[in-house]
Amino acid sequence: QDNSFEQFIINYCNEKLQQIFIELTLKEEQEEYIREGIEWTHIEYFNNAIICDLIENNQTGILAMLDEECLRPGTVTDDTFLEKLNQVCATHQHFESRMSKCSRFLNDTSLPHSCFRIQHYAGKVMYQVEGFVDKNNDLLYRDLSQAMWKASHSLIKALFPEGNPAKINLKRPPTAGSQFKASVATLMKNLQTKNPNYIRCIKPNDKKAAHVFNEALVCHQIRYLGLLENVRVRRAGYAFRQAYEPCLERYKMLCKQTWPHWRGPARAGVEVLFNELRIPEEEFSFGRSKIFIRNPRTLFKLEDLRKQRLEDLATLIGKIYRGWKCRTRFLLMKRCQIVIASWYRRYA
């Protein structure tokens, strides 16, 4: 119920992860339909980039203002930090405070004067400003780092590389918020170079009890995880897409015209294949470089047909091999019989 600096940076990280989820699933998928020339009705979804900007903007972001308060001379308290937030973020649609110039929150008794509230992607969260400034300051002084670096234990020495005299930096140590922000940026950069697969876990209740389903809790998690937008995009779009070449290579054995080799463009081969299988036209669309299949059951049907065809081909190969083996043995025995008979007639 009481959220401070720690929960604030955790929620900031969650917002960044939600942002990359939106970029890699909702936005990228819709852009792919446009890029491939597929007829598509755009699905609206909320992009939380505005919330991330509220927190991490280099000039007006909450973390930037917190660092500025920690580094500026004079009397610095949590109240002066909140006062600065109220001045800079007063008009932001996702920032709420009783002390800001925005009159819509002046009579909000659910929001104490020493708190501010952020409307996150998953909902509103209220933060107590008490301790923000102290927790943001890195209190590990340089002489302590140097003392730990001189320890004889290799692990302790490795934990404090900034204590190395050869790497002494006279600048003030970075704040906890700036360090966390840099770590999150590195994580996002790493994730954007990957092809992630998402596993969404739903907690049915807070008691870790079996057969207990809390509908309100589950609905909250569904909204928080962005599953509603994802389901809408998936249902309106296509469940499966694949380039023409690998698609033809995988399913070409299902059509006599494309098996064993197709002479011509891969797209033309896929068109011949789907026409031969009599798949309804509403179940697929041809893009510029990919085939798009709307429903998973169509893909399951193709896989079942392929599995059956592979079994038939395996049976055919086995039959041909057994026939070849028997014929080879028969011809060998026939030649042997002729040789034996010729030698017998010679001595008879």
TrEMBL record:
Residues annotated as domain Myosin motor: 1-307
Positions of region (Actin-binding): 184-206
Example of a GO biological process term: actin filament-based movement
GO MF term list: actin filament binding; ATP binding; calmodulin binding; microfilament motor activity
Keywords, alphabetical: Actin-binding, ATP-binding, Calmodulin-binding, Motor protein, Myosin, Nucleotide-binding, Repeat
GO CC annotation terms, alphabetical: brush border; cytoplasm; microvillus; myosin complex; plasma membrane
Presence of keyword Ribosomal protein: no
Lipid metabolism found in the keyword field: no
PANTHER family: MYOSIN (PTHR13140), UNCONVENTIONAL MYOSIN-IB (PTHR13140:SF277)
UniProt similarity note: Belongs to the TRAFAC class myosin-kinesin ATPase superfamily. Myosin family.
Protein's name in the database: MYO1B protein
UniProt organism field: Vireo altiloquus
Lineage: Eukaryota, Metazoa, Chordata, Craniata, Vertebrata
Gene behind this protein: Myo1b
